[in-house]
Structures are given as C-alpha cells and as structure tokens.
Design brief:
The structure is a single chain. By secondary structure, the protein is mainly beta. It contains one helix and nine strands. It has one domain: Immunoglobulins (Immunoglobulin-like, Sandwich), CATH 2.60.40.10. Strands 1, 2, 4, 5, 8 and 9 form a six-stranded mixed β-sheet that branches.
Length: 110
C-alpha cells in the first residue's frame, strides 16, 4: 500500500487535533491495535533534515483511530512549515500511511 498524501494545516499557538482511519477493500475499518505509531515534521523530506517537531509523543492509536493531538503550547513554538509523514510499525513491518506538507499559519493574536 502506497502512502496517502495529506497536508497538515497547523495554526501556530492553537491546539492541533486530527484523527485518521483506514478501511479495507470491503469498507471495514483497519484495526491497528498492537501497532506503534511515529511521525515527525522536518524542514525537508529527508532523515537528516532539521527536525521541527516530533509528533510521536502526541500520537495515539485506539483500534482503527490514529489521533494526533498537539497542545497549543507546543504549536506556539513552531516557526516554519515543513514536510511530515506518519508510519506505523508492528515488529519488523513498517507501513507509511500518510505523507505531505506541514503548513504553518502564523499566530497574530498574542
């Protein structure tokens, strides 16, 4: 399965919350119980590029739901846009589910 393309729209200084679900060919949800997730935002899509935010601590998996919930205090520290991806692992199996841009909308109100 090839990774889907999904851009994150992050508002600086606001809570970021998104939940993703995947479905099988028959429309039933994929159960990710037992899998571990990891995600990062980097300046470029390269493993040695500057890390802007490690999303892994803000990622939870509950059955078919994969949720990223980043507090406003953390998004307030972001200063630029970048690239991101989301991978799930189960032992030696690694599945990249999503990838794309992480677009930052700067905060105006302080």
């Amino acid at each position: 399965m090839a990774a889907g393309s999904w851009d994150l729209q992050i508002e600086q200084g606001a809570t970021f919350a998104e939940t993703y679900t995947t479905v099988n060919d028959d429309g039933s949800p994929v159960d990710w119980t037992g899998w571990t997730g990891r995600a990062q935002i980097r300046v470029l899509a390269a493993p040695d590029a500057e890390l802007l935010l490690d999303l892994t601590p803000y990622l939870t998996i509950t059955g078919a739901a994969i949720t990223i919930l980043v507090p406003a205090t953390v998004t307030a520290t972001l200063t630029r846009s970048g690239r991101w991806d989301l991978e799930l692992t189960d032992g030696t199996t690694v599945m990249r589910l999503l990838q794309g841009r992480a677009l930052l909308a700067p905060e105006v109100t302080q």
